[in-house]
Amino acid sequence: MTSQSQTPAIADVYAGDIDSSSAARTLEGQVFAYRIEADAEPDVLARIAGICNLANVAPLRVNLQRSAQGGVEVDIELDGISAATADSIRRKLLQLTCVNAVSLN
After folding, report:
1. Rounded CA separation 36/103 (Å)
2. What whole-number distance in Å separates Cα of residue 31 and Cα of residue 38?
3. In which domain, by residue range, is 47 found?
4. What is the model's pLDDT at position 25?
5. What CATH number does residue 40 fall under?
6. How many distinct structural domains can be found in the chain?
7. DSSP letters of 80-102?
8. Between the CA of residue 22 and those of 25, 36, 84, 89, what are the distances in Å?
9. How far does the chain reach from its first CA to its final CA, in angstroms?
10. How far apart are CA 100 and CA 88, in angstroms?
11. ∠37-30-43 over CA atoms, to 5°?
12. How many CA atoms lie within 13 A of 34 on its CB side?
């Protein structure tokens, strides 16, 4: 009888999907909340989702609504990432041309 590997079939080894169990435990319970102010363009949510995709993380919760100024406000919660990754995502979001401001809580 051979032992089977514990590596998930969909793991992306270049994105760091395979972490030690101690590192995975330290990330449990941490939720990073972003408030994004952006232009009201049809593809704004797709652009923001693309940044999450590059970081290999699915949002825990997303809320988009129009603001009184004619733009949109997007609230996103991410979990299972480190504080360094959360800040990297914040900086990448600010580089999008349609994004005006990003706050990370």
Report:
1. 7
2. 22
3. 29-104
4. 46
5. 3.30.70.260
6. 1
7. S--HHHHHHHHHHHHTSTTEEEE
8. 5, 32, 17, 23
9. 49
10. 17
11. 30
12. 32
Please indicate, yes or no, if residue 96 is contained in any of the structural domains: yes
DSSP state of 103: E
What is the DSSP code (8-state) at residue 71? Answer: S
**How many Cα atoms sit within 13 Å of 48 on the Cβ side?**
29
Residue 45 belongs to a domain: yes
Type of residue at 13: V
Q: Mean pLDDT of successive 10-residue segments in the chain (105 residues)?
A: 51 54 58 97 96 94 94 96 95 96 96
Q: Which tokens in the block code for residue 70?
A: 């004619």
Residues 6+ apart with CB under 8 A from 39: 71, 72, 98, 99, 100
- For residue 58, tell me if it sits in a domain: yes
The tokens describing 59, both together, are: 């949002």
The position carrying tokens 């990432």 is 81
pTM of the model as a whole: 0.73
pLDDT of 29? 74
Q: Is residue 84 part of a domain?
A: yes
Q: How many residues does the chain have?
A: 105
